[in-house]
Amino acid sequence: MTQDWNRFLSVEAKNRHPSVMKTVGGPDIISFGCGMPHSDCFPLKGLSIKYTTPDSNFKKTAIGSNEDDANSKEGASEIYQMCQYMSASGTTYFKKWTHEHIEEFHKPAFRDWDCLIQSGATLSFDQILRMICDPEIDTILAEELTYPCFLESCKPLRLKVFGVKMDADGVDVNDLDMILTNWYEDERTKKYRKPKFYYCMPFGQNPSGITMTIQRKKDLLQICQKHDILVVEDDPYFHLQLDPSAKNVPSLLKFDTDGRVLRIDSFSKMMMPGMRISVVTANNFFVKKLTMMNELSIHSAAAPSQLIVYMLMQEWRQQGFRQWIEYIQANYRRRRDIILDAFDKYLPKSLCSWNKPSSGMFLWIKLRLDKFPKLDRSEDDSEWALELEDLVYDQALKEKIYLTKGHWFMIDDMVMAGFRATYASGEYEDLYEGSRRLGIAIRHVHENLYEK
Ligand SMILES: Cc1ncc(COP(=O)(O)O)c(C=O)c1O
């Protein structure tokens, strides 16, 4: 059944229309229309990339070149498209590759889906926020610990975010259901407009490292369907599924028969953040609106980035790309296992605990508050948790360890003191040495508070 998705649009998005400055092309058309530079005036006529090869397990390099005639009359060549203005939704060749990629890995369950190439997930969720939410009026639901940049994007729009509880399997769907069912009765929520979407990170959740189970995904979509809200699936860690036993777990898109999931993929974590390439996959109503937003802002994601990634895919082929995914999975799996081994050796289990993430780049260290009882100087438990976090954070810095504070990820004040730690970038020996120093810092804070 086709739905009228207009009900989800912000006033801003309702007032967006396709730009009149469109290119009308065709073999017989002489254009006196758009201000597109002549291809004789493009100084770039080709592009070469040096890349690592799948058959050497990404150790050796090769060179790939593209000199696809930049002066081609039809203007359809890849180099020409890289140099010229293009469709706001992406170059034709990269969009084609992206469609095939989404089909292969996500198999969307609804028919009228489409993709938009974007300049990074951060821009993608910022545009989605503006498309759906009216500043100061709308509200959003998200996991109780969530990505700070998302919260920071909500702030200038004065959008209130409400947290939903989580457990080891992902979002607590009963809590989500309760919040939405009691929205206009609950003191906390009743003066606000009911949310139009739920924002989540299904794989290797940032910061907790939790991966949502398949059952949870199905339950989540059922609740969202019941309350008629959308889901924004921000998923840069999809290809970082680390445990061979839990590989190829599908995304939410695969179970969404309505078209209520707006999925964001990013090349940042599975390849190169500097490319600034992301993909929004959603029903084509929303993709069209987002494309209109591009037309009057970035115009389109940078074409050289699209071409570089595309050329790499042409060199690697589908099989090589799959090998690449296995290669990065093995790399991050090794790092994760090393940090877990190091934590086991060096962190005081009597004072803190941590999880074993099955995807992504992060794990979550929780201080045991029963072993750090509140001191009289703090008003309440959540204030104490915050103070304790600061104490450990500062002590870790003295030991030259940088952690991200748990409170930066919290939507509401929580009686929880924790830290996000990443194993993604450190060298193996640094993962051990850092863990040793973190262990010292935690013990030091405890001794200072209670054992002096
Ligand atoms: C959940 C989440 N979304 C988005 C981003 C940023 O992605 P991008 O580099 O594509 O803007 C990150 C990066 O840490 C992230 O963890």
From TrEMBL:
Pfam families xrefs: Aminotran_1_2 (PF00155)
Full protein name:
DEBR0S4_13454g1_1
Q: Which InterPro entries match?
A: Aminotransferase_I/II_large (IPR004839), Class-I_PLP-dep_aminotransf (IPR050859), PyrdxlP-dep_Trfase (IPR015424), PyrdxlP-dep_Trfase_major (IPR015421)
Q: Note the superkingdom of the native organism.
A: Eukaryota
Q: Which family does it belong to?
A: Belongs to the class-I pyridoxal-phosphate-dependent aminotransferase family.
Key word DNA-binding present? no
Which segments constitute the Aminotransferase class I/classII large domain?
Answer: 117-433
User: Can you name the source organism?
Assistant: Dekkera bruxellensis (Brettanomyces custersii)
